[in-house]
Amino acid sequence: MSHLEAYPDDCARIQRVAKAAGYDITLAVACGIWELYSESFAAGWMGLEDDAHILDVVDSHIKFVKMCPHCGQTMPRDR
Asked: Phi and psi dihedrals of 22, rounded to 5?
């Protein structure tokens, strides 16, 4: 089961917070950002905190996530 399937409400909240701040991101990219953030703590999925913290994570991790144009899955961006 993917994180998007396991945590749909969290992914939707991350996307809502990001869109309110002006980021035009898909649900999959929002989920991918949080996956990268969680992996940095060797965690399967970090619990969401307040909206300000979510936005900080989006701000600092969005540059590392992109969507595959062929399958729509998220993947690490070339660094």
From this structure: 105, 0
